[in-house]
Give the backbone structure.
Amino acid sequence: MKFGINLYGVLKDRKDTMDALRELRGLGYQRIEPCIAPAAFQGWEHVFWPADWLAAHLEEIRDLGLEIVSAHLIGWDASLDRDRLRELAERTGIRQLVVKSPQELTELSLHQAALGYMQLADALQDAGAELLLHNEQADIQTRIGGRTAYERLLSLCLGKVGAQVDVGWALAGGQDPEALLWRLGSGVKSLHYKDFRRGAPAVIGQGDVDVTACFQFARAMGIPQLVDQDEFTASPAQDLADCLRALAMRTQAREHSVSYLNILDVETGEVKTLRRFEGVIEAPNWLKGRGAILYNADGRLFTYDLETGNITGIDTGACDNCNNDHVLSPDERSVAVSHGSRDWTIPSRIYTLPIGGGAPKLITPIGPSYLHGWSPDGRELAYCAFREHEGRMEVDIYTIPAEGGAEKRLTLGGFNDGPEYAPDGQSIWFNSTRTGLMQIWRMDRDGGNQTQMTFHPRNNWFAHLSPDGQKVVYLSYGRDDLEAWEHLPNMQVELRVMNANGTGDRRLLSFFGGQGSINVNSWAADSRHIAFVSYELIHP
């Protein structure tokens, strides 16, 4: 995912502004949030950027690979500077401008502030920007009308002003950050990470803030996530790297999730929910000959009987950490799985075993290998594999005989994943980042004639062809929600469908899902219905 950082803490002790930004980009930060002033603050120009300075250096900042997603307004008057702030948003393309609560936290002062903020929000809307309110410790501690002053002020703004919640100050003010976030819900437009340990500043992820819970909320809402580290140890660069690592390591977090197994009618759009599961289930395969759906959960495989609703486990032997890449053989007598050790000492490798359970057979001795396709003639498996080439790790599509043997590389360039055979066995569909965003591609079975099939500005994954070969369903993420090579869980996503020649592309459904929703082919035999998994976060 793309993470950002508020620049106050970074710049307050150094004046080499562009060098500092260059270092942030080198650490992996892609978004920044500066503090913008109407004019120079004597001696503090490096911290509170004058508006004209920002405009003059905007292209240089962009050339570093940094995006200014938002800016804190310092020294502006919400009532008097509306036109200048609208011009600032138009000139810079900044889409979120951030203010704070008034210093005097009374009912009267909040009403007065709300009037000015709503007028400013209206002016910014004309420039395609929005106004956000940032919380401090004081406006969380102060109670007005049974609520925090922060929440009271937001309510007085009548939905015209969004929230930028600082979870560290929320904790310091006596609130559970997760509970506050969910109370404000879709009104939260941006999230600041600050952390404390027993009241003292801490590096993010090393304090008392439940960073995972806050991250889950922000990812679910699809909002910018910004580090706000004001205090540092003897090594600021290491602290900033640790902050970023604390967030990046949570991209696969799935705590407090429940799952829903669903069937979608592609023609009518009707959705039927079959069952609610506590915890995470993934990747439904439709067992066409048995009237059941195969899925994985907790590293094992299970079948759900469509008539009775009964669930039956499959004995996968030593493969006790199967992921969401299982594929059925054409005769549905066997299943191939991707399995690796739970402690990651052994990477994912591909095995086959009888559908009724039994001893797994290793097919790919080399890992990581992630299965996705079994050829209609039963002779070959297609998979995504991480392999080192000329000193660097590359991710490409490979095939291998279904009984094992030498693997064959089919792609070169970009991040390539999700290979699946067409029903006639003549072509393989896959997804690749070779043109920038993740897009759906098609190639001949031997790797020839690689052709891009989707072009719209989203990240598109896992093309699944209907049994009649006429339609293709795939999973789609927003272009800025994650890196092109990521397919993460617990996000707002789309199921889309197109004709097999690439025409007629349309959205079928928007829902909360992602990784695990439809990793493998889940078409019914009628080429009309598909199975998919949606998720829900359980929260205070």
In short: Residues 336 and 352 are 4 Å apart (CA to CA). DSSP finds eleven helices and 38 strands in the chain. Residues 4-248 form a domain with the TIM Barrel fold (CATH 3.20.20.150). The mean pLDDT is 96.
